[in-house]
Write a structure and sequence with these properties.
The structure is a single chain. By secondary structure, the chain is an alpha+beta fold. About 25% of the residues lie in helices and about 10% in strands. The protein has helices at about 5-10, 55-60, 65-70, and strands at about 35, 40. The chain has a two-stranded antiparallel sheet. About 5% of the residues are buried.
């Protein structure tokens, strides 16, 4: 799982608590970790969701200004 530097900064500052990814098959597992350029990131949960279920609050928790930004990603 690759994170943009600005996302990592927000994660380590506690400002970003959700990440959205498009996968054919998840590459991480709940309870696992991912090594990043800033350190280890813990994976609490991995859930398949429909794009329509992404809320504005979800988008902001992931560091986007709105859900349109998540969808465009």
């Amino acid at each position: 799982m690759l994170f943009r530097r600005k996302d990592l900064d927000a994660i380590f500052a506690g400002q970003c608590t959700v990440a959205f990814r498009r996968w054919k098959k998840p590459t991480v597992r709940p309870g696992g970790t991912v090594r990043t350029q800033l350190g280890m990131v813990g994976i609490d949960a991995v859930e398949a969701i429909e794009m329509a279920s992404v809320t504005e609050d979800d988008a902001r928790a992931a560091g986007y200004q709105d859900r349109a930004g998540v969808i465009a990603m």
